[in-house]
Design a protein that fits this description.
It contains ten helices and nine strands. It is of the alpha/beta class. Helix 7 crosses helix 9 and helix 8 packs antiparallel against helix 9.
């Protein structure tokens, strides 16, 4: 199978070489890699240039946006900027962060998943991060059937069906919900251990703390699901103030009538799916 990788990169000089080394070392190499240098002020571009010279399948594209690192919209806008350089001659497409170390057979296994399971639309492994003792520990704040946004692979048919990725906070939840809406499955493989070099949200702007609640509004969750999901998130992360931040974000978005990112029909499906998941865990 053939695949493309898009890597959005903003001030990733500390980690990018490790990520690209792990991509170059894949037993099933990519057809093309687009690294989008998004307004970096460190040596990110120089690192990309070095790999472009050595590896013909790696390509750079510069983008000039803000220097703030905001989750959601910025990274997907950067991803979409790289997507403009690609054609449709691929079997699956990968959105990869610039602070990820992949095992050498990672995409060989991903390709096999898509080959053997045609109904799978999104596939991936699990993230491991270093704890305070320097040991790599699994860090997965979402359900086990969720693929982290830092390393998501999409079959071409699924990517087209969901209309690509939404440039909004919560994009890596809405993509999976829309995949389910269109009849695709989500596949996670616990044997695929991915090293995530930067803790979740470590570089985010402080204004980002309300965006999760805004995303729940944009996904048409409704207040009940938002309260339950926010409480679960706060308890799992052991950050109870996150519960208040989420509710403030949701209520602010509702008050200001911010636009939804899914249709009414998709919203009904999402609420039904979420309530079913809640009931399963309760009963």
């Amino acid at each position: 199978m053939e695949y493309y990788i898009i890597i959005p990169a903003h001030n990733e000089a500390e980690f990018l070489a490790g990520t690209l080394d792990s991509v170059v070392a894949q037993s099933l190499p990519p057809k093309k890699v687009i690294v989008v240098n998004d307004h970096s002020t460190d040596d990110t571009e120089g690192i990309i240039d070095g790999y472009v010279k050595k590896h013909p399948f790696i390509q750079k594209r510069n983008r000039h946006s803000s220097e703030q690192h905001m989750p959601g919209s910025k990274v997907i806008q950067t991803f979409n900027y790289g997507l403009e350089l690609l054609d449709d001659a691929y079997d699956f497409l990968v959105k990869l962060d610039a602070d990820i170390i992949l095992p050498p057979d990672y995409f060989k296994h991903i390709a096999r998943i898509f080959q053997e399971n045609p109904q799978v639309g999104i596939a991936g492994g699990f993230a491991y991060e270093k704890d305070t003792k320097g040991e790599w520990k699994r860090n997965h704040p979402m359900n086990n059937d969720h693929v982290r946004g830092a390393f998501k692979s999409y079959s071409k048919s699924c990517f087209k069906a969901i209309g690509g990725l939404k440039a909004a906070m919560g994009w890596d939840t809405v993509d999976e919900l829309l995949a389910l809406f269109h009849g695709f499955a989500i596949y996670t493989d616990e044997t695929l251990r991915v090293k995530h070099l930067r803790p979740i949200g470590a570089a985010y702007n402080k204004r980002a703390k309300f965006l999760q609640g805004e995303a729940m509004y944009a996904l048409r969750y409704g207040l009940g699901i938002t309260i339950i999901a926010s409480l679960k998130m706060a308890l799992k992360s052991k950050k109870l103030p996150a519960f208040i931040d989420n509710l403030r974000g949701y209520l602010s978005a509702r008050k200001n009538k911010k636009p939804y990112i899914v249709s009414e029909e998709e919203g009904r499906f999402i609420r039904k799916h979420r309530w079913q998941g809640i009931r399963k865990k309760l009963f």
